[in-house]
Structure formats: structure tokens, C-alpha cells
Protein: M3 family oligoendopeptidase
Organism: Anoxybacillus andreesenii
Amino acid sequence: MTQDHSQKYYKELIDLQDVEGLEAQFQSLLDIPIESVSDLEKWLIDEKNLMIKIMEAMTGHEVDFYRNTEDADIKSTYLHDQQVIQPLLLKYEAKLNEKCCKSPFFLQLDEKRYGLMRRVRESKVTLFREENIPLIVKEQELSTKYSEIMGGLTVEWDGEEKPFPFIQSQLDNLDRAVREKAYHKMISAFRPIKPELDAIMDELVQIRHQIALNAGFENYRDYIFVAKNREYTVQDCYDFHENVEKHIIPAWNRLAEVFKAKLGVDTYRPWDNTAKLMKNPPYSEVSTLMDGVSEMLGKTDPYFADRFDYMRENGLLDLGDRKGKSPGGFCTSLPVSGETFVFANFSPSFFSLIALIHEMGHAVNGYLEFSEHGPIEDYQHRSEIAELYSHGMELLLLDKLDRFYPDEEDFKSAQREELRRAFTMLIGPLSGDLFQHWMYMNPQHTAKERDEKYFEISKRYGLNPVDTSGYEEEIGMSWVGTIHYFQYPFYNIEYSMSMLGALQLLENYQNNPEQAVESFKKGAGADYNQSIAAIYEETGVSFDFSEPTVKRMGEFLEKVIQNLH
């Protein structure tokens, strides 16, 4: 089946080019008198209906841009949203929050239904500074510039020009010479754009630091914890870093010795850390990938396959690599349509197969939430919850990887690889989180210091067992390939926290598959106004990243891998 990239997948029920009309709608909301709790509840519904129309249109325009960063008209529409609509939105959102919070009926709203909304609005009122609006717009412009640079990145491979994701996929190759060649090609691609990406990051750090100062904080790290309404502290994060270093890294090093032996290498080099023991990529055509994933989802639960097939038939999947497409992969919700859209820019590889399954976890979560509660509002979305269902979906499908790896030894290797990925998702995001703590607590750092710190942290965590001699500079610069540092600051640790929950889900699945899947669906459709811990509990797991849990789940993971003989 050929993908139709021109198919319209979102609804534009509002004209974002009509700025005066949009302002009039905001002003109308501000002018509505609120004289009772029921008036306030009706006002909140009216506000929500306007906001989701705006969000769907802006989301659609953003995805259009990621799908084709080189189309001038698409880019113009996207930049209009960022440069004109986003400042307007920030301005009126602040006024609407203030109107809501100052209402004498605000504190009379039902705690169970509106408690989270109240806390988020109060923090937004506390954080808002009008002088930050142009800074936020500039921040988004720089993020867009990063996407354009990376979207246009190509690499010469055997005389052909290939999209960057193709080179990344070659790092999986069982042939060590191919992996090493791909590693050097990747670094060679980074070198000419590194000064420009350094300049972008330098400016982003300064902008974000100034945003924090304007809001009354000493640094951006402390600001972002309030802005994200985190249900844990900075110290909790540092404790988590230490718990993983103490209990997960030694297990990671032991597993590295196992993989080193299986690869038959004397020294474990940077390009060996990514090697896959399966003989071939899991697919060659996107249609084959979609056929297989649909089957795997259906064997787990019919509803999962139903959603995937629906998305496939309705142009809600854009998979595969092509020039001009932004890097990475994501799933996003369309709140008016009640749909989810999955974007991915990957070449055939084990990682791309798992990434699609991962994003389908998000998609199923989105559909269940919509069917149970209607469109999720911005304040309800917490990454610690969302990532539980994406990681969870990966592990629920672990026993079905033979769909792509029918050879028994390849199947076991693929399962080991997915479990090794679970280890990396405990380790890597914490490394990235610590890196960002350092960046924003030391905002005057230089590009050279940043690279050195990235190497130092990488060596402590994911590259701990790797012989990095002679590649300190290359590893130090490789952070530029991670989109999160540019576009989603401090969105890292959530992956690690949720992986601990997902491993508990796998443990439950091994004991009772049907019950684990039902718990997954129950949690994925739970009321998002609850605490993170309460939603985890509905999923049959605990939101716990204390030392005993980290140690126990690390031991469980290592045992499961070792049992795959």
C-alpha cells in the first residue's frame, strides 16, 4: 500500500490567518460574566471548544512542516502560527487564566474534576510575564531552524545520496565494518553543521535562562519544574540518577560482556554498542512493516489492531524516510477530530520497528482517552503517564517479534535486543536529564565545555563499558543529533520513570497476559485528572523510582535477558 502524503488528516474549523477574528473570539470569552459555579463550568467548556480548534489547526500545520520542511507554502503557514498566533495565544491565555483564577467561584469547583486544572492555572498565572512572549517565540523559531537543518541532512553512501536516518539504520548491521563506516559517516555529517547547531543551542540556553529570570527564578531548571507541574522534586531526580548508576550500570556492564562475546570482538567500540545480532533488517518496505505490526497488535488485543488499521486507512501514519522530512518520530493528538497521527522518519531497522510499536502505544492511549473522556486538554498531558503506555506496548509485544524474525535464533536475539533497549531507556534518558541539569545550572558554559560534559556523562552511563579512546571529541559532539535538547527541554527523565512502570507491566504480563492487557487498557483510558501515581495504580503498577524498585526491576530485566538462551 502506497502512503498518500497529501491526504488531509486534520480539521481546520478556525481560520488562523484571520487574526482579528481570533482576537474577537478571545475577547468575547473575556467579556462573559461569571455569576455562579455553573456559569464558570459553562465558560470553561466554551474556552475549551475554542482552544481545541486552535490546537488542531496548529498541530496539523506543524506536522505538515515536519513531513516536508522544504515546501515554502507549508513553512509559511507554520511560521505564521509560530510568529503571529503563538504570541497572541500566550497573551490571551494569560488573561483567560487570570479571569478564571480570580473568579470567586474558582475554589468552589469540584476538586476531583478540576483540582489538576486549578493547580496548573495557578502556576501559569504565577509564571506568566509579558516580556517572555517574544522570548518564547524566538525559542520556537530556533527549534524550527534545527528541524530544517536536520531535515535537509543527507549522506553519501556507496556513491548514492541517502537521508540521514538511512545511515543511522546501518549502525544496527551485524557486519562490524559496515557499523564502523556508518559511525564515521554520521560524525562526518555532523561536523559541517556543528557550529550552526552550537550557535542555536547557545542562544536557546540564554533565552531559556532569561525566561526563568524574568519569572523570578535563579535558573531555568527550577523554572521548568514549576512549569511542568512535576509531582516530584529536583532531589528525587538526583536520587534516581544515583540509584541507576549504583544498580543498573553494573548489570549493563555485565550484559555488555555477553554481547561482546556474541559479536566476537576483543574491544567494545562505540559502533559495537548499537550492533544487532539479527541477520537482516526486519523489513524492506513500509507496507511490510505495517502488515506485520498490525498482526502483532491483533495477537495482543483486537482493539490495538483495529486502531492501527483505521489509522493506516485514513492517512494517519507517515512512516519511512525521505529527503526534507524532519528527523525522529512522534505521535500527536488531534483534539477536534478525536484522532491520533504517527510520524516517523526511519529507515528499515530493528529500532524503526520498535519505534512504530512505541508510537502505537501513545496512539492507543490517545484513542482510549478520547472515547472515555473526550479531548485531552493541555494541562492533563503528563509525559510520565504517556510514556508508560508507549514503553508498555513495546513489552506487551515482546513475545510476538517472531512475526519479523521467524528464525528461532533471530527471534531470541530480537527479544534480547528489545530488553537491552529497556536497559538503555533506563540509562540514556537519565544521562540526558543530567546533561540538561548541568547546561541550565551553568548557562554561561561554552560549546567546548558542553561537549566535554556530554562525553563525561555518557561515559558514566550508557558508554560505561565502551572503549572510547580516540573518540572523545566525536562522542562529545553527538548530542546534536538528539531533538529533545533543542525542542523539548527537560523531556528525558520521564522515559526512565515510565520504563520502571513498563517493566512491572511485563512482569504482570508474564504471570497473567489477559489481566495485564486489560490493566493496560484501563489505565490508558483512566481519568487524567488524577495524580500520576493513581493512574499507574489503575494500570496495575507503581509510580516508584526509589532505590529498592530500581534494584528489583534491574535484577528482573537482567534475569529475563539471561533466560533467553
